[in-house]
Amino acid sequence: MSEFLVATDAQHATLDDLVATHKSLVVAGSKDILWLVSGALPDALTHLQRRWSFRRVRVVASSQTITSKFVIFLNAGDALQRESLMNVREILAQTDRPDMVYGDSATPTMVKAEPFSFVRRPGWSPERLRSHCYVGETLIVAADLVEKCGGLVDLLNRHAHDRALRLSEAASKIVRMPEVLTVAKSGDSRPSANLAAVVEHCARQNIDADCEFQPGVPSVRVMRKLNKQPSVAVIVPTRGTSAEVFGKQRVLVVEAVRSLFEKSTYQNFEVVIVADAPTPPSVLESLKKIGGNRLKVVDYDRPFNFAEKNNLGAMSSESDLILLLNDDTEIITAEALEIMVAMFNDPTVGVVGPMLLFEDSTIQSAGHIFSPDPTDLYRARSPETAGPQNLLKVQREVSSLIAACALIRRDVFEKVGGLCMGFPGNWNDIDFCLKVQLAGYRAVFTPHAHLFHFESKTRVAKRVEAEVAKLGARWGSVLNDDPYFNPKLQRYTNIWKTDSTSKQTLDEALI
Amino acid sequence: MVSPKFDPAIVQKKMQDLAARDAEFVKLAEARERDRQIAKFGAVREYEFPPNTSQIHVTDWVHRSWLRPFRFVYRNIPRPLRKLIKRFSV
Q1: Which of A222, A253, A273 is the last residue of a domain?
Q2: What's the Rg (C-alpha) of chain B?
Q3: Tens of pLDDT, residues A361-386
């Protein structure tokens, strides 16, 4: 019984491609590989069978039953990284054995100084897999899982996205290996996407949604249908500050609330204003005029504590969902609330966050990354930025979301104890999102809902060492190894950048 | 939707319940983190952001021509031995 069965669809492969793959299997780190080359021409097959491989690789044209413990789906022409199976074996030897493994990959470039461009992948993210096949095309899967999902031949003939979705549905544990697993032949390292595969996946998983292919990205947008209209309490802490926005002076909270009432296509909400004592009465009057009986004012007369203000607002209302909203925001996408509310059709979703933009339309927040300093991903970059692997164009799980705009299920909010009042200014959102995940729910970022967040671009959150220690005492290992980041990426930066190709100096990276 | 106007005492009670549940989660998270630290470092230590170990300077010296034979030998020795050398060198 061989250790690994490598399955390759060779119908459209050239002999050179197959030879390149064969060469890589010889040095992949296993002495016993059975290579199923499906659909190869007889001449090519004979050629491969005659190639010298130190008896490590046996080439077959068909296999009725899987006689190995693990199956590796590998494209013709792609090469397994030298000795990569040794790393795989270490992961598979763990007591809590995963039944599906994916890893990073590399693609050759024509640049001599940087011969490879690396595709560093985040940890298991089911929401993202619905959009595109971010796990790549090389998958290592337990043999029993392959049988459960329709068998080897059936899976091999399917699109990579379809295959990954089907396998993920039945898998009990999926693990990302943060090491290069394959060197891909293809120059295009963007994940592929297949609309039909996602439609079928949604049907199998009872996800009531319309799916739309976005050819520019490429990805599939899964738009969940809003079959019921859960109530939303919008909590807006404020002190009635005025500021200049788009060249005009405005009372921030008034315009934030006005945009909700006037622009949002979703109207089953009430607004709870948590007003500091110095809030001018004229501001409260204006707000009441806009909101009518759907606006409630809660007075707050204690020293500033963002977490407490939000908790107070949430506890002063009754609704299915709670939207934490800063007073310096403005809705851009009219359907933003609908898009976010619809995400809660999935009972495993605990908190959803949209794309927030600065006044000049650059990105303010597209979810947090812990690198290990918690930071807004792609802050101050162009809103057109797709990011490596189209990271910013697809819905995906994140470790944390900014509380400037976050929609939360009320039962989850109450279950985890709301925002921690021990973090009065910074990081209460990070602590909250991590509590939500500890309780077994997911935090999801959607790039399809946009809001302005008129925060100062140059504002840097004041870091208090005692707060770092407190956050670290609770979540230190998550901060050091964010599951939706990759340990091989450059640290102390807000972009998804491979370590070895960086041109930044240490000082630049630390700023 | 419009929520009823709550009695401040009821809101206060809800806030206390919220704080109590937060404390439970803090306890749970801290215990988990303690276990992880003990498993990794053998002791619990105060958290601070780790130093930046990103490879942001290209280490050119390893590509000098006179090092080629040493690199060749290193790359072709058995993996466990290579791991050992790497561990000691770091």
Answers
A1: A222
A2: 27
A3: 999 999 999 988 899 999 999 988 88
Q: Give A490's contacts (C-beta < 8 A, 6+ positions apart).
A: A371, A497, A498, A499, A502, A504, A509, B54, B56
Predicted local confidence at residue B85, as pLDDT: 87
Which tokens sit at B30? Answer: 């801290």
CA distance B36 to chain A (A): 7
Domain around A98: 4-222
Amino acid of residue A430:
I
How far is A171 from A182, CA to CA, in rounded Å? 22
A434 near B CB under 8 A: yes
Taking the CA of residue A467 and the nearest CA in chain B, the distance in Å comes to 10
pTM: 0.89
Q: Is A157 on the interface with B (CB under 8 A)?
A: no
What is the tally of structural domains in chain B?
1
Res. A503: pLDDT tops 50:
no
> Among the three residues A222, A256, A273, which one is the final residue of a domain in this structure?
A222
- Inter-chain residue contact B36 with A472, CB threshold 8 Å: no
**B contact residues 59-78, partner A, Cβ 8 Å cutoff:** none
Q: With a threshold of 0.95, tell me whether the complex ipTM lies above it.
A: no
In this predicted structure, which of A61-75, A107-121, A360-374, A407-421 has the lowest mean pLDDT?
A: A107-121
Whether A227 is in a domain gets the answer no
